[in-house]
Amino acid sequence: MKNIVLIGFMGVGKGTIARAFCAHTHCVGVDTDDLIESMENRSIKEIFASDGEAYFRAKEQEIALWLSKHVKDTLVSTGGGFFMCESLKKIGTVVYLKSSFEGILKRILTHQNAEQKLAKRPLFADKEKAKALFEKRAPLYEKKADIVLHVEGKSVAQIVKELEKKLKR
Ligand code: S3P
User: What is the mean pLDDT of residues 124-128?
Assistant: First the structure.
């Protein structure tokens, strides 16, 4: 199996889908935010607050290069801005989890840990700014994607099945 790389906006469900897909297919999953947090021994929120976004983006580039060189047969879930990394396409098949901004907001706000979900995402602190970022990125995610998967209004099980089907084609 080639690596699979899940991209998409913050809160679209990349981590949730990744875990369900791995459980279903018995493959191994890694998450780029988790890798950065363990590399740095601090949270994304702390990295942004102490060293700023540019520093975080540089870490993403490092992780992307490392993944492209050393990792195979793995499902890679990513942070919402990871799609900008130079080595992205070298990692594996890029799957864009697509939803409207309203769909994402609804997903986050109806979650039982909504406050926690928002608090750990510095770029979601201001909803207007987050929406503007979404509008800017939406066409760029599509451009990078080998596969576009519409996730809005679908159950996790349904999305996992569709992903499996699309990857087999
Ligand atoms: C970011 C998304 C976050 C995290 C960081 C930056 C972004 O990941 O990588 O806060 O630029 O969209 P999630 O997509 O998992 O929230």
Answer: 91
Report pLDDT for 40: 98
Q: Is 10 in the pocket of ligand 1 (CB under 6 A)?
A: yes
CA of 44 to the centre of ligand 1 (A): 8
Q: How far is the CA of 23 from the centre of ligand 1 (A)?
A: 23
Count of the separate structural domains present in the chain? 1
Residue 81, ligand 1, Cβ within 6 A: yes
Find the domain containing 88 and state its range.
4-168
Q: What is the DSSP-derived secondary structure letter of residue 149?
A: E
What is residue 103's predicted lDDT score, i.e. its pLDDT? 96
Closest CA to 104 of 82, 80, 76: 80
